[in-house]
Amino acid sequence: MVHPDPVALVDPWGVVTGWSEGAQRLTGYAAEEVVGRAAAELLAGGPPSRQALAVLAAEVALRRRDGHVIDLALRAFPLLDGEGAPQGYLVTATAAGALEPTVAEQVFQQASVAMAAFDTGQRIMRFNTTAGLSTEFAEASLLGRSLREILPDFDPSAQRYLQHQREVLRTGNPVRFEGYGAPKPGGREHAWNVEMWPVRDAFGKLVAVGTAAFDSSEQHWARQRLALLNEAATSIGTTLDVVRTAEELVELVVPRFADFASVDLFDWTLRAEEPSSAEVHTDVVLRRAAHWGGPGTGTEAAVPVGEIDTYPPFSPPAHALATGRAVLSQAGDPDLERWIEEHNARAAMTRKHSRSARSLLAVPLLARGTTLGVAVFARAVRPDPYTADDVSLAEELASRAAVCVDNARRYARERATALTLQRSLLPQRLPRQAAVEVAHRYLPADSVAGVGGDWFDVIPLSGSRIALVVGDVVGHGIHSSATMGRLRTAVRTLADVDLPPDELLTHLDDLVVHLSTDDSAGEDIAELGATCLYAVYDPVSRGLTLAAAGHPPPAVLRPDGTVELVDMAAGPPLGIGGLPFESTELQLDEGSVIALYTDGLIEDRGRDIDQSTAELRRALAGPGGSLEAMCDAVLKAMLPEQPSDDVALLLARTRALGADRAVAWDLSPDPAQVATARQNAVEQLSRWGLEEAAFVTELVVSELVTNAIRYGVPPMRLRLIRDRALICEVSDGSSTSPHLRRANDYDEGGRGLLLVAQLTQRWGSRQTPTGKTIWAEQPLSPD
């Protein structure tokens, strides 16, 4: 072997296989005298120490051929085959003391940055002390080996590391990147800013890859905490539901922040009630709203969701509630160990394995000065305990969740209040009447908007007629519900006056205008807007008269199965003022179904109004059945799973009172007609089998007919209607309404209407196109 420096080749068994000219000059031995001999035979002393062999460098005493002993510094470099296995060693010799580290070597070894060198086969050549701290292996055992041999579980971070090394070897350009991973099995995840660069020899040939890694874990963990907070801002509080908000918190933090998390709330929070004070020196009773544990962590919950749990004063959750601050507990804390032991004993029947928490955080849920409950975060598998930075993060997460829980609680409370108010204003029980068969549905909107101002009503009128009403106050919330209540009361009051539909809406519109001028409640009506449809059905004439104030027209299902929308003027919404309303009249066959509804049934952002009305007609024309079944069929066909607006639906199937139930006689303005009218009435009652009502009926007919002849003008008419009550009506051409008054002792008249009021169930008068009608009702027995 021709080489000017002292160099020798040694096989893996320590036998010399090569000898240079420089080695011959240094030792005096020719190559043929040394090759084939054990290298240890050339040493004057014993073999190098194990530590020296491990690092392949040592100070030795060498005996020359002439017998002189010289001190040398030997270094051995492994010669590797294609698979990285050592096939021999290249040994160089320098003067004694040359192994003492140079300043450059000391800089390399003592650098705070992890540094290493890899050959072109991606095998380890050198690494410094900082790099060695991140592994459990000694440097000597790693030299000449690749990362794939060292790491049994070759994770993605190591693969990425080698991939960047190959890129440097392929391109000859430096690379910078950020790497992640646990430095030791089971250790906390670290982050490094890594730089790799090519290393070339004197001839420019790429012979190695140098690496330097700076530990940026603190910055990495800070970014992770910030990312978790940013995600919390969008993922917690997506709904106004207390339990779902608690679930969103635990789903967010497991497993990124905790192996197990739970949220326990005071009972009044879940019931949307007012806060109640808790005694901090006694056991705290909370209800589990949500919990979540990472799979395989052995952190199953001891308390099922929805159940209550009692926290003793020494427990971290109770302590956190008492102080209003986060409580950090680590393994070995007596209170933590005692509390976990009690929990494990309670859960022994429901889980096979249990791990004690290595680190636990209990954080109170505080919002607007009110304590709502406590959130618990525990680590049982993750090796790193919670730190002060983690406490700050947990408090931020809990604060965000607490505000969302409080918002949901307040919303639930306001919604419950509005629903209670609205239900109290809607009809609790529809009146008994014979004009129509009625079914109805009311569905509040399933949205954050809350309840609205839709309403419906069925109002009995005189003459067996019935008024059907639907209305809608635009908007949602308590103001809309309260406004709806005022309008419904106003409609009932005006209906008692028995006005025609167009006149009733005119008076209602005037009322809204006056309210908006006089008080703030009316301003709510004007600002929100309101619509109304008022219809009157007469079972005797089978006529339907209706008018609308900005409300969609009703649909009518005829007995032959055809469905049509009533062609009528929509009219202006209530509160506009100064614009007229128009009445529409139509005849209905007995058994027709009138469908009145609010706009929430047919108006939707995803549907055209014509398409909606066509669907409504198809739904009404479906297979026949009861009105209740028809209501369900219409709602199922028309509404999405979550309606965006309130819906009121009122179905009325008409009945008719035929000639056998209603009779009428024309009257002339002759006092002799009073006796004839009484006789006709008595005979008709006899035909109806109502002889027991004849005495009262005679008196009522006599008084009403007498008043019409004395004070009214032709035409005059007497009508008897047999319905749930016996109705007596006397009409004349005068528009002057009678008044009930108290007669003096010596007055000869003035007692007729008082007598009628005393003998009948109720009485009244209504205006007609030709004058007025005075009516009185007598109750009939159920038989």
Question: What would you note in describing this structure?
Answer:
The protein is α+β, with helices and mostly antiparallel strands and 783 residues long. It contains 22 helices and 31 strands. The protein has a six-stranded antiparallel β-sheet, sandwiched between helices. The longest helix is centred in the middle third of the chain and has 38 residues, at 388-425. The protein starts with 6 loop residues before the first strand and ends with a strand. 33% of the residues are buried.
Rg estimate, integer Å: 49 Å
Profile the largest sheet: 6 strands, antiparallel
The largest sheet has its strands arranged as 13-12-11-16-15-14
Uncertain segments? 349-354, 745-749
Characterize this entry briefly.
The protein is an alpha+beta fold.
Q: Which terms would index this structure?
A:
783 residues, alpha+beta, six-stranded antiparallel β-sheet, five-stranded antiparallel β-sheet, 22 helices
Which helices and strands occur, and which strands form pairs?
Layout: E1 7-10, E2 16-19, H1 21-27, H2 31-34, H3 50-55, E3 57-63, E4 69-80, E5 86-95, H4 103-110, E6 114-119, E7 124-127, H5 129-133, H6 139-142, H7 147-150, H8 156-171, E8 175-181, E9 190-200, E10 206-215, H9 217-235, H10 242-253, E11 260-265, H11 267-270, E12 284-293, E13 308-311, H12 316-323, E14 327-330, H13 334-347, E15 359-367, E16 370-379, H14 388-425, E17 436-443, E18 452-460, E19 466-476, H15 478-496, H16 501-518, H17 520-528, E20 530-538, E21 543-549, E22 555-557, E23 563-565, E24 584-587, E25 593-597, H18 609-620, H19 627-638, E26 647-654, E27 662-667, H20 673-688, H21 694-711, E28 716-722, E29 725-732, H22 752-759, E30 762-768, E31 771-779
Antiparallel strand pairs: 1-2, 1-5, 3-4, 4-5, 6-7, 6-10, 8-9, 9-10, 11-12, 11-16, 12-13, 14-15, 15-16, 17-26, 18-19, 19-20, 20-21, 21-24, 22-23, 22-25, 25-26, 27-28, 28-29, 29-31, 30-31
